[in-house]
Amino acid sequence: MLRREKRQAAKHDLILRARKKHADEEARSLVQRLKTGDQRAFETLYRRYCGQVYRQVKALVGNEAETEEIVQDVFLTLHQKARTFRGDSAFSTWLYRLTMNSALGKLRRRKRSRELNLDDHLPRYQADGHHLLPVVDWSRDVERHLLTKELHRILRHALDQLPPKDKAVVILSDLEGISNKEIGKSLGLSVPAVKTRLHRARLILRGKLSVTLGHSSN
Amino acid sequence: MAKRSIVGRAHSAICEEITNLILDYLTGDLDSETASAFEEHLRLCPDCVAFLKTYEKTVHATRSLRYEDIPPEMEKRVRRFLRERLKKPQRRR
Fold first, then answer.
1. Residue B68 contacts A, CB cutoff 8 Å
2. A195 and B23 in contact by Cβ < 8 A?
3. Looking at residue A121, what DSSP letter applies?
4. Is A202 buried (19+), middle (13-18) or exposed (0-12) by CB count in 10 A?
5. Which of residues 50-89 of A touch B (CB under 8 A)?
6. Does the pLDDT value for residue A199 go beyond 90?
7. What is the value of pTM for the model shown?
């Protein structure tokens, strides 16, 4: 990356962090008001965060009716547990945790038959650790498929077949841009465990895309 | 993930080890010596270059997925549900 691009990326990151910090301070203040019984504070929290909760839950469970039930459940839980929010972690982390607990609970109750035979989509190596087959660079083909939206359909389908917790890690990391540390706190995982799950899930998605584009998963 | 150091042995580092370092390489979490060895391996191995490019493209494609906003009707329905529910005396769950 060029030095100028790096500086711009760092500046952008600083602005995002400042915005996030400000939003978190406001949310903490609303939770404090909710603790004293201020229902308007709850309404404000709902208005500000229902979109985020909906987006994450919809990405995770897919089904509209179940998503609505879970969004209800998340905000009821937020109301009931506001007293227990001590502010040790960011409000956003706490809300991710409530959201993920509720959505993953729903997914766990589903039958597991839809999961891919995941190992088929991981890269394969020779006994000496080198790639088993020549790796085809299909990265340029992706742009063309992105335009057709076909690729999005394939990716969503592949995401749906990941184990629920791995799917949650991908959604929080790659779709929501949340740090591995925050994801770990939200899902009860260590940072290395988050990275391992994220990497494996990306390898599987990559393998699935590779096969869809007519190449081996290698 | 097996992460034996590849420093000083870019020529003999194997592709599987390189694959296991991709995530940390892309997030800038590798120390400078390991990052240099990683890049040195890439100069020698077209398969790993292709693998890295397609891995990055997969992440890029995943990031481009968009999930729609909450439908206004649902937003109102949930708001009404919460108001009604929270008016009633709370029962322990």
1. yes
2. yes
3. G
4. buried
5. 50-51, 54-55, 58-59, 64, 68, 71-72, 75-76, 79-80
6. yes
7. 0.84
Gyration radius from chain B CA atoms:
24
pLDDT of res. A99: 97
Residue A179 backbone zone (phi > 0: left; psi -120 to 50: alpha; other: beta): beta
Please state the separation of Cα B50 from the chain's center in Å: 18
Compute the average pLDDT of residues A145-169: 86
Question: A188: left (phi > 0), else alpha (psi -120 to 50), else beta?
Answer: left
Looking up tokens 């607990």 gives: A101
Token pair recorded at residue A54: 């909906």
Predicted confidence at residue B1, as pLDDT, reads 45
Helix (H, G, I), strand (E, B) or coil at A131: strand
Chain A: closest CA distance from residue B31 (Å): 16
Structure tokens, A56: 């994450």
Instruction: Give chain B's length.
Output: 93
* d(CA A127, nearest CA chain B) in Å: 10
CB proximity B16 to A under 8 Å:
yes
In sequence order, what are the beta bridge partners of A125?
A131
Per-10-residue mean pLDDT, chain B, length 93:
66 82 94 92 93 94 89 96 82 51
- Residues of chain A with Cβ-Cβ distance to B22 below 8 Å are 199
